[in-house]
Amino acid sequence: RSLVQGEGFQVASHPDHPPALTSDPGYPVILGVSIWLLGAIFEATQGALILNLLAAAGFLWVVWSLFVARIGRRGAAYLTVLVALTPMVGKQSVQISPEMLSAFLAMALLSNFHQNISEDGRSDGPWQICRTGFLSGLLILCNLFMVAVAVSIGISLVRISKYRQAAWFGLCVFLVLLPWCFWISIQEGESILTPFLLKNPDIGLLGRADTLDFVIRMTRNCWRYLSELIGIGMLPALAPMESMAISNLVSLSLAALVFFGVSTRMGNDWLGTYGMVVGFALMVWPWSAPEMLLTAIPLMWLGLYLTTREFVRRWGTWISPATLRM
Question: What is the CB neighbour count within 10 angstroms for residue 152?
Fold first, then answer.
């Protein structure tokens, strides 16, 4: 709203405080353009909701394409429905936030990149690498957590020994982020890493974090995601359970099944690499939140599906062959 009104990039509720360290500039710019284009016809919130609904449709389409390439059309249809029915996806589809848009763009960028580069290192040349780096940088400007996308692409390039392409990719990402980093330095006298170095960014606690603070943060985040957010994200019925111990146990079991499927059945797949990078980012991030799992939800359902299918194949001989081929 402040951009559309010509007031610059600022948080409306705190106009005197530069949002350099709290708000990524990409989504407000996209939202401002959307409001500017649609504001004469729709209310501002309707324009934002239309943008999110389109992003949600694109997200499900990309997810379906990824599933089809790995488990066939029938299994892909089942899993895509489960992803669509996941409460987090529905919530973010009708909420004015960058999560759904960035999730769609992340899945589309990763899918397109890995379709154009094979395991033997062939690609469309340096233009594709620079284009991917440029788009990855823009994606980070929309949602800082999407740095996991850039890291996973870099790891994929290194794994196939394309070190020069990895360097060009990293340089393009850096050049896109450089103006924002420079602006943060001018506005706050800090760096983009400042929130990660605070003892408790959730409450703005001053002081740099030491090694123990990082260990506590990673332990806290890991436990919350494994014992609560993953389970509730996939099975929302766990949330109102009276017994917290049972809810935590079910969530831990689901997380274990998901991890087994991602690590063993997708270990050589770029989706597995991306899943591991996202998992590490969730642990080291300054805060934990359910919406940060949005891009991981397709991986979670796919990992659970692959684990279940593997267990049935090994021990479920009583299941009919038609079910095993599903």
Answer: 25
